[in-house]
Amino acid sequence: MFIIIHSIIKIPIKVNNRKDFLTMKTAVIYFSKHHGNTKKVLDYICRGNDIKLINAAEIKSENLEEYDLVGFASGIYYSKFHKSVIKFAEENLPENKKVFFIFTYGGLKEGYTKSIREAVSKKSADILGEFGCYGFDTLGPFKLIGGIAKGHPDRFDYENAANFFNEIKNK
After folding, report:
1. Chain-centre distance of CA 133, in angstroms?
2. SS3 (DSSP) at 49
3. For residue range 39-58, what is the model confidence (pLDDT) as tens digits?
4. Which of 41, 64, 116, 160 has fewest C-beta within 10 Å?
5. Nearest C-alpha neighbor of 104 from the set 131, 85, 127
């Protein structure tokens, strides 16, 4: 529960002795290259949410202790999260954090989060959920045919991602 004054000042109220979801500090560690699909999704989610985005390709170390919620986001590279995101999780994620995953892909198949799940599970993380959507892909042979998943992420992908985040921040 919270009170909004003049629509810009948010005053959190304790409910059942837990922090209100609007006061939860959130960081998302991400890697987004090629067409920037994953970053586009994250930028949309950041609208109206106080989220610190950490580019795993540029920042190798960050103290995540102060964050209540930690996300890991990546395009899918050879059926898994980018190695910089996995390495960041292995080296920087504190024990027992609430985490979530966001990813974009050219073609849908099972198992995209297996490697990042393994990395955060070693830190006894509480995995709250995952969100994936199509992203325009012209890597490798897809370039020859003009790419796959053209037009994605689209507005429905963005809205679904925002809905996902709003649901998990309440857990």
Report:
1. 12
2. coil
3. 999 999 999 889 999 999 99
4. 160
5. 131
107-132 burial by CB neighbour count: b if 16+ within 10 A, else e?
eeeeebbebbbebbeebebebbebbb
Would you place residue 154 in the very low, low, confident or very high pLDDT band (cuts 50, 70, 90)? Answer: confident
Q: Could you please report the per-residue DSSP string of 56-108?
A: TTT------TT-SEEEEEEEEETTEE-HHHHHHHHHHPPTT-EEEEEEEESS-
Three-state DSSP state, 170: coil
Amino acid at 153: P
Find tokens 């037009």 and name the residue.
Answer: 151
CA distances from residue 95 to 21, 69, 138 in whole angstroms, order as listed: 21, 12, 37
Bridge-based pairing state of the strands 69-77 and 98-105? parallel
The β-bridge relationship of strands 26-31 and 9-12 is unpaired
CB atoms near residue 143 (< 10 Å): 10
Mean pLDDT for the stretch of residues 127-140: 81
Cβ atoms 62, 92 nearer than 8 A: yes
C-beta of residue 112 within 8 angstroms of C-beta of residue 81? yes
pTM: 0.83
What sign results for the dihedral spanned by CA atoms 113, 131, 52, 120?
negative
